[in-house]
Design goal:
Elements: H1 2-17, E1 31-36, E2 39-40, E3 44-47, E4 50-52, H2 54-66, E5 69-74, H3 77-86, E6 92-93, H4 101-104, E7 107-109, E8 114-116, E9 118-123, E10 139-142, H5 146-155, E11 162-165, H6 168-176, E12 182-186, H7 187-196, E13 202-206, E14 213-215, E15 218-220, H8 225-239, H9 241-250, H10 256-261
Parallel strand pairs: 1-5, 1-6, 10-11, 10-12
Antiparallel strand pairs: 2-3, 3-4, 7-15, 8-14, 9-12, 9-13
Helix pairs in contact: 2-8, 2-9
Amino acid sequence: MKKWGLFALAALLVVALAACGKKDSGSGAKVYKFATDAAYSPMELMDKDKVVGFDADFLDAVMKEAGLDYQLVNTGWDPMLQSVKDGKEYAGGISSVSITDERKQTYDYSAPYFESTNMILSKAGSGLKTGQDLKDKKVAVQISTTADTIMSDIMGKDNTNLKRFDSNALAFTEMESGGVDAVVADVAIVGEYLKQHPDKNLEGNLDPSFPSEFYGILLPKGSDLKAKIDPAIKKVLESGKYAEIYKKWIGKEPNVQNVLNAK
């Protein structure tokens, strides 16, 4: 209970202090509020009091293309999921949310906008290159992510060697302290961590058995916003703006056609 009480207070403070993005234009038009978990660099992170990153730039491009006003607020992961589910204050959530059949039972999604997979981060030379290599090791993941699902399937959901954290930052810290042998997280997040910590003697490995995933903007069930932003997403993907944003934050060219073909 204490954990939840402190978390809720922290979330409220973050919401109060970290609101950012396009503000109400004063035109009287509806302002769509989006929630995010800005602890997922380079996809979304805080720069002082502003949310920046791939998802922030992408949402900005989509909402401009759709001609809609919006506001992006850092709420944290669990409050984002709950608030979008409620469908009252927030019209949607954008935070590298993979589209899964399980989540589709609770949420609607926009059209896919980003292709990803999970990557294994470990000490260089550890030989931990596949999920099966991790079966009897200590592994950290962010709770309720697809990395959590994949490693739960391999190690067992109740395996105490599978450690779940509220953020990947905490999972990385756990590995730095020697608490786990590896971290499993989205390839963009692991890649950014490797780039920022070249002195830590780490390596990232892609297990080809880990499935390809696609991110979508999270929407409440029955949201009419989907019909407004899906055409805008397609236009942004095809316009070259998407590749510009991708190269800025991910550092390479995207496979746009894979994203356009994703369902």
